[in-house]
Amino acid sequence: MTDEPDDYDDLAARHVSMRRVLRLFAPYRARIAAVGTLMILASAIGLAGPFLLRAIIDIALPQQDLSLLIWLAGGMIAAALASAGIGALQIVLSARIGQAILHDLRVRLYAHLQTLSLRFFTGTRSGEVQSRIAGDIAGLQSLMTDTANELGRSLSAVAMTAVAIVLLDWRLALFVLLIVPMTVLISARVARLREALTFQQQARAADLSAAVQETLSAPGIILARTMGRGPWLTQRFARISRDLAQLEVRSHTAGEWQWSLIGFALATLPALTLLAGGLLMHSGTAASIGTLVAMIALQEQLLWPFEQLLEIGRDTRKTRALFARIFDYLDKPVEITERTDPVTIPRSEMRGAVQLDHVSFAYADGRGPAVNDVSLTIPAGSHVAIVGPTGSGKTTLGYLLARLYDVEAGAIRFDGVDLRDLRFVTLSQMLGVVSQEPYLLHASVAENLRFARPEATEAEMIAAAKVAQIHDHIAALPEGYDTLVGEGGFRFSGGEKQRLALARTILRDPPILLLDEATSALDTRTERAMSEALEGLSKGRTTITIAHRLSTVRDADLIVVMQRGQVVETGTHAQLAARGGVYAGLLAGT
Length: 590
Known about the structure:
This protein folds into 2 domains: 5-330, ABC transporter type 1, transmembrane domain (ABC transporter transmembrane region fold), CATH 1.20.1560.10; 347-589, Rossmann fold, CATH 3.40.50.300. Helices cover 63% and strands 10% of the residues. The protein contains 22 helices and 10 strands. The strands form 2 sheets. The chain has a 6-stranded mixed β-sheet, sandwiched between helices. Helix 4 packs antiparallel against helix 6. The chain is elongated, with a radius of gyration of 35 Å.
């Protein structure tokens, strides 16, 4: 958790600037200008009240002019009505603008995260990502709607009221405005205190979100129950929640004593104004009673928007912490990028030839290369198996083939084209992946299958399920293909999930099929049936099988044996078994 003030100051300095925040509002400048105009108009109309009040006290009442009194009172009512109507319209427009900006920011952050490499997600808690998309952007809700609206309204009200006060009596105005510098300084000090606390608060909220996501999922509950760690997890959650509660209190109360001085100064201003008016009367340069009453009324109109401005300034500084966390993710570099002029291979021209040319790759953990100088040619339509002991680099090689990481040296080519030159859509059409840990969406079986091809017909979907040996099971369910699979597919067994994932890939019909331990969760009978199905499916299709169970790869055209990131043996099952090397050792251990 990054919660040290120095860390936060560095993060905010690197990622947040006023210009960058204002750019979020740029697409809506015309609508913002319209709201600003309404704010100024409402403030100007609202200023008519005190001047009409002065005329009532100094002219209409002393002269007992009933007609003038009615007109002036009616003018005050009309001004109040117009100001209220314009204010309501302005609030509606402001709310729409604010929500549009939040929507843009939320989608922009989600889209950016979609482009990051697997490296980012393997090193980041999913709860932390969720906290920044949901929690931090939700924290900007008040800034983009209520605060922005109140800022414009209060700013226009303060400016217009200040002008009116000067026009009423410049001497009393000077006395009133002397209080401004002191209150601004106090407000800025309190804002700085609360900004750093807000950053710590959001970081701890992310810890809370991660704890919930990790432990209140089906795998988390199973782990806690089987390990008897439920009470410990509850204690850990309570500790995080208690820290968050304490930070919430400190964030809302830091500098409260200094802030109370502002309230005191503003509360005493009317009394001091009357005292100043009395001193002017005593000096022989008296202001009229109507002027004093109007001045007090204008002060009332000035004080609440001015106090709101100070509060907005204080609270807006807190949102800088939220922007720092959001922009930090937006500034994460995109490692896997598409060329400006990417290569597109039409589906009818895809053959499925794969070539690895001196490929090397290392993770950022400093443990050396996970794949080291691997060269391999896989003819179109052939079946190649990649085997090796745990940690040999075979799964990493699968990641590189799917371009979840980019190679650090060498090149991988599909049909003679470097993966880095292919259009993303073309790559996804060429290569279908079934991983060791298949992921299913919390949706129906049909929606999970059609995730690969939304336009697929029901007949095509059923055909793919039959090939994957899962159709009979789905058809026997009460709701058939409309059955909800549950979060992570927990309504299905491990083997059923893998067959659903295989059916999903089959539905996409790629010329290259990458099976990463795809049959590891299947029982022997189902594995045999599925192997027969795959044999039919593999005709005319390049199949790359990454396997730990050697029984699944005996019939491969070529078996590639990896050890410590390098290819150490290649050949057929019979050739490698007879050679007495690494493969023979793996075979003896099964």
